[in-house]
Specification:
Structural class: mainly alpha
Radius of gyration: 16 Å
Number of strands: 0
Helix content: over 70%
Distance between the termini: 29 Å
Largest sheet: none
Shape: elongated
């Protein structure tokens, strides 16, 4: 259990850096170029995902998966997180009329749990038991 908590703290810490990248892009595109918050958020998320992958692979999960295995899995998880983030941003800003940064904070919290779970059990195989090495 302690290992899971430590991994989550590391996941959230490196995620905070990626989130900073996403929010910076979101605000610059929204305020500077008047791009819709849903589109600006999606672009920021996609750009931040690359830095996020490298931090998670090396520092959080200390993965021994090869990049050609973990990379595509991470891309699938990131794309699902992007879809979830975009849906939540659309719901928050367009349907509920929330201020875009409030909607983004709420979306970030939900996507954090989603991504941590999927990356931990599938992408980097770091949560739970690893299968025994092949002989």
């Amino acid at each position: 259990m302690h290992d899971l908590v430590a991994k989550f703290i590391g996941f959230a810490g490196t995620g905070a850096i990626a989130t900073g990248i996403q929010y910076t892009i979101l605000i610059l595109l929204r305020e500077g170029l008047d791009i819709s918050p849903v589109t600006a958020s999606a672009l920021g998320y996609a750009i931040a995902a690359v830095a996020n992958y490298l931090m998670k692979y090396h520092w959080v999960f200390g993965s021994d998966e090869h990049h050609h295995v973990a990379g595509p899995k991470y891309a699938v998880v990131s794309l699902s997180g992007l879809a979830l983030n975009t849906l939540l941003m659309h719901t928050g800003t367009e349907l509920l009329g929330l201020y875009y940064l409030l909607a983004q904070v709420m979306a970030t919290g939900i996507v954090l749990i989603w991504n941590f779970t999927l990356n931990g059990i599938w992408t980097f195989r770091a949560i739970g038991q690893r299968p025994p090495p092949e002989s």
